[in-house]
Amino acid sequence: MTSTHRTVTRIVRILESAARAGDRGVALSTLARELDAPKSSVHGFVRGLCAEGYLAETADGYVLGSGVAHVLGPAENSVVLLIEDVLAEISARTGETVTVAVRVGTSVVYVHSLPADYEVCYAPRLKVRRPLLPTSSGKLFFAFAPKTGDSELLASFDPETRARLETELPAIRDSGIALNQGETVPDVSAVAAGVFVDRVLSAAITIAGPITRTKEHIEHYGTIARELLDGAGFGRL
Question: Which residues does the UniProt record annotate as the domain HTH iclR-type (predicted)?
Fold first, then answer.
């Protein structure tokens, strides 16, 4: 026989309320009223869900965060389905592994991938949290979609990683792409380009492969991805 647990029940009700509200968002006062609980208690749950990426705060309240898609898989209107034609074209033109990454709280999660044409290739693990840095997608999120608390998060990384990001940020913002030349995995080179929906960075597309094969081409692959995304209406402007 199953039994209820008050904490679990409240968390589920918060997520359900945010789901019903959709893009409008749900206010903290509304959540407190629906849960019949003090605002201070509900705010604690909400802060935790935001930190883990399951809620996101907007000017009008709270909406579901990218962590929900990370757990449940792509929904009908998910960014993966929106850009599937672009993904296929990037894959065809580069021949390397193409992956969709989203930010979930303080982590980056790969939610979808198209395999490379080569037998020796990069094969990412999907739906696994990993540190934002030094991934190419994480650099992109720091550049174009900073969040409250990022200063503290950045301080948790080693000085070399922080210094490298600070050095690279101007070029990332100028070009719209971020590179990782063997920083995460010594023999893998990667580049990321952002997917902007209504001018908001929603995801990153990465192209990655063995560094011996891709090092001289990886920046060009990023330019291809950026141009294709811009042409399909997923650019910054």
Answer: 5-66
What does the buried/exposed string (b/e) look like for 184-205 if buried means 16 or more CB atoms within 10 Å of the residue's CB?
beeebbbbbbbbbeeeebbbbb
Per the DSSP assignment, residues forming a β-bridge with 194 are 204
Q: Please state, in angstroms and rounded to a whole number, the distance separating the CA atoms of residues 14 and 18.
A: 6
Give me the CATH code for the 71-231 domain, please. 3.30.450.40
Give the domain ranges of the chain.
6-64, 71-231
Architecture in CATH of 6-64: Orthogonal Bundle (1.10)
> Would 6-64 and 71-231 be classified into the same CATH topology?
no
Cis peptide before 134 (omega within 30 of 0): yes
- What kind and span of H or E run contains 108? strand 107-114
CB-based contacts of 65: which residues, under 8 Å, 6+ apart?
49, 50, 53, 54, 55, 56, 104, 105
Identify the H or E element spanning 47: helix 39-51
Q: What is the pTM of this model?
A: 0.75
pLDDT 10s digit of each residue in the chain, 237 long?
A: 345 577 888 888 898 888 888 888 899 999 999 888 899 989 999 999 998 888 988 888 999 887 776 666 554 347 888 899 999 999 999 999 999 999 988 889 898 999 999 999 999 988 888 999 999 999 999 999 998 889 999 999 999 999 999 999 999 999 999 999 999 999 999 999 999 988 889 999 999 999 999 999 999 999 999 999 999 999 988
